[in-house]
Each structure stands twice: as C-alpha cells, then as structure tokens.
Amino acid sequence: MFDLGRSFLASVERRPRAIAMSDGEFRKTYAEWFADIQSVARSLEAIGLAKGDRLLVVMQNRWQMATLHWACQFAGIVVTPLNWRSTARDLSYCIEDAEVKAVAYDASVAEAVNSCPEAQRLPRIIAGEVEDIGAHDFDALLGVEGELVLRAGAEDVSLMLYTSGTSGKPKGVPRLHRAERTAALAHVAQNLYRHDECTLGVMPLYHTMGVRSLLSMALIDGHFVCVPKFDPAATLDAIEREGVTNLYLVPTLYHMLIEHPEFSPSRVASVDKLGFAGAPMSAGLMARVQEAFKPSLFVNHYGSSEIYTFTIDQRTSDKPGSSGRPALNQRIRVVRVGAESPDEILGVGEEGEIIADMAGDEAFQGYWHRPDADRKALKEGWYFTSDTGYFDADGDLFVTGRVDDLIITGGENVSPVEIENVLSVHPQVEEVVVVGLADEQWGEVVTAFVKARQAIDEGELDRHCVDSGLARFKRPRRYVFVDEIPKSPVGKILRRVLRAQDTPSAQPH
C-alpha cells in the first residue's frame, strides 16, 4: 500500500501544473509545491530530525504549516500539530508527553513558546513575523537541493493528534500512514469528490477534519485553500475568490457563515457539495443551510480522531438527526451503557453506547503511552466511543450525545439532542443547547440555553414543544436566554461550561 509521500508524488506526476495550494494571493502548482516540500524535508533532516521523531507544529492554517505536514510525510517524521491557542503549560505537557525533538510555530503562539522552557531548549522553526534569536526561519528551509526524500512506509506513523482532553489530560493519538491514506480515500469516495475539486482549508490542521481536507485534495490533484483562522467575512472572500466547490465544516461555522450580514447565495454559488462533522446539526440549522447553498450533496460524517469515520449519511437533509449507516471501512454497534463486552448489543430504538470495530482500516492502534485509556476504550477488539445513540427501524444511527451528557431527570433518561432539534426549528431561535442542571427534586432538570433572534416568551417555547409532540418529561423546565453559546476553538459546543454556570436567571415552570 502507498504511504502518503508516494501518494503526493503520484499527484505531482499526474498533474504537475494543477494548482495544489493557495494562501491569499499566494499559490503553488503541484510541481512547485513538491519542490518546496522536498526542500523542507531535507532541511528538517539537516536540523537533526530523523524518521520516527516528533515535530511539534503550532500554527494557524498557513501554507507553511501545510508544507511542514507534507514534508514530514516524506521524511518519516511524525507531525504533531497542536492548537495555536495553546498556553505555555499546554506546550510543556505535549513536548514532554510526545518526546518532541523540535518545534515549529508562528506569531499566534509566540508568547506561549517564549514562556515555555521546554520549547526554548529545542530546535525551533518560525514562520511569518516572529522574532526568535537562534530559531530557523522557515524561508531558510526552502531552495535546498538534493536527493529525493522518501523515507516512510505504509506501516510508519504519519502524525499524532491530541484529543481535546475534556476528561483529564489530552491523549496522543498516533495514526499510521495506511490509516490516514485510507481515511482520505474514504473521504474522497463518500463526498463524491472529483479531480477538479477545490476545498476550503479552514478547519484547523491540528484537528482530524482539517487534516482530512488537506490529504483528500492531494489524492485527487485538488486545490487546498488555506484560511489561517475562521472569520466569516474572510471565509466568504476565499470561497468567492477561489471558486471553492466543497465545504467540510462543523455546524457552528455554517451557522456563522449564513448569519453573517455579507452572506448571499450568489457569493457561494460555486459550492456544490457540503459536509459536516464534529457535532450534530440541528434540524433548524440544516434547513437554513440547505436553503442557503442548495447543494447537490449534503453529507453528515460521524467519527473521531481515533477512527476517522464511524457512519456516513449522504442524504442528511432527508432525515434530520440521522448520522446514517456505517462508513466504507467500519462496523458499528450500540451496546448497554457501562457494558464491558461488545456483545451486549441493544435492539432497535434502544439508546446505549456506540462502539466501533478496531479492525476497520481507518482505526488507530491505541493511545500514546496511555494503557489506562486503552483499557477504558478498547475492549475485545472494539473501540468504546463514550457517545450515546440508537439505531432506528431503517438501520440508521442517531447520535444523541456523550455518555456524560445524558440527562437523568426524575429517573428518566433524556437525550439533549432530541430537544434541541425541536426547539431549533422555532423561527425566533437562532441557537439552542440543552443540558441537565443539578436539582434537589428531580436530580437534574432539563434546561435550555437559548440564543434568540428577538425576545421570546418562555410559554411560547413550551407551547412549541407541546405542538411538536415532545414528551412532557423531556420538555425544558428552565430556559436561560444568552447572548452567545460557548464553543471550543473548532466550533464544538461546550456543554460542560453551561453546566458549570451559575444560572440565577433560569426560570423553572
């Protein structure tokens, strides 16, 4: 099987003059970018990095970061990307945990790098407007001639992602070249990509979605449009300027795009295919996105850093809330919450924990130096996701949240996603998140945090829930009206932040 370096080389040989990457007005063909990538690979080796070493890369989605990612694939170096909002403490943890040998960074994280003793002791590479005496400037890595660098094989580690660490310290997720390539090929197939595709590279390259966009375009000689960080106006400009043909975003970013005052369907007319992942998309948002883009394909991906895709639904707007059926390289089960065996399978409509077959071609091999995490998540050849869901009578999977997000009120299990879907279609609800807040009488009380377009009467929202057929015990007993819904840097809703808030304004009814 090809490794990723050979995969990129094949694209260079097929279409050397095709545009491979752009960053604002800066652009490179496959032949030009390959020359840069090879030069950087040689330079990394000259700095002292060898096959199997970890290179920590902390940058926004600029062309230098994409180039470093590919250079590592050729050199057999394990690219280890980290959130550019990381603190010095975050960097210190990752450097020690991953046994990092060098750090590459840009101005977005310069303060944290300067404050991190572990980073200061390592070789450093800087990109953009950064002052760091003793560091290697990225531009100095270019123009280095030499033999072809092609060190990695399919069984070597391509990259190590770090999970968000919502429960304890972040965990390293090493992924092999063959798993990364297989995931990228599946992404191409499941999104019906063609040779002339152009994608928006705005999902961070420290996130599995960003990496998938980068790799999938290279496999089909496509065009990867770097957008350093998400900004609705800049993103709309990039879509319009480059004629972007497909988008792969978290639901929050779609919401921010279509709600922006400068959005118009004419500005995104080139976009024909949409995909989303990272979180469920509410029925209300799905309808608005469908109307705004009118895509020929609207795909829901459900997966994780550990195993790229669990399920796929290429007709997601036909059945809002559905995550579809197992993807090309996966088998899925729903088992009892708390099960120790993958054989404790639940029936149709029964909600439990979603598990995935570790024999799937996209699966990781286990966490980096974390046998405790392996024992918790890997059981009898299956990956226990900590996500909850159920299969309907058609065989489609519905993801209802995290095991920790399940609301237990008055002894009844309530899925927040079901309630969010009902409230999201109310015309005055812009965004809504439902969580369980501690309550002496009920254990937890169903609470809806609502970002409204204009003032809404709570009674009106309750009547809407009744008219929608939502069971009485599932209806919110409290509503909290907020200006913004808290989200992570990649747009995931932070339910734990809402659960931790003091909510004196919450009104039970």
Automatic annotation (TrEMBL):
Residues 418-492 form the AMP-binding enzyme C-terminal domain. Residues 10-368 form the AMP-dependent synthetase/ligase domain. InterPro entries: AMP-bd_C, AMP-bd_C_sf, AMP-binding_CS, AMP-dep_synth/lig_dom, ANL_N_sf. GO terms for molecular function: 2-furoate-CoA ligase activity; medium-chain fatty acid-CoA ligase activity. It holds the Pfam family AMP-binding. Its EC number is 6.2.1.31. SUPFAM superfamilies: Acetyl-CoA synthetase-like (SSF56801). PROSITE patterns: AMP_BINDING. Keywords: Ligase. GO terms for biological process: fatty acid metabolic process. Gene3D superfamilies: 3.30.300.30, N-terminal domain of ligase-like (3.40.50.12780). Belongs to the ATP-dependent AMP-binding enzyme family. PANTHER family: ACYL-COA SYNTHETASE, MEDIUM-CHAIN ACYL-COA LIGASE ACSF2, MITOCHONDRIAL. This is 2-furoate---CoA ligase. It comes from Halomonas organivorans.
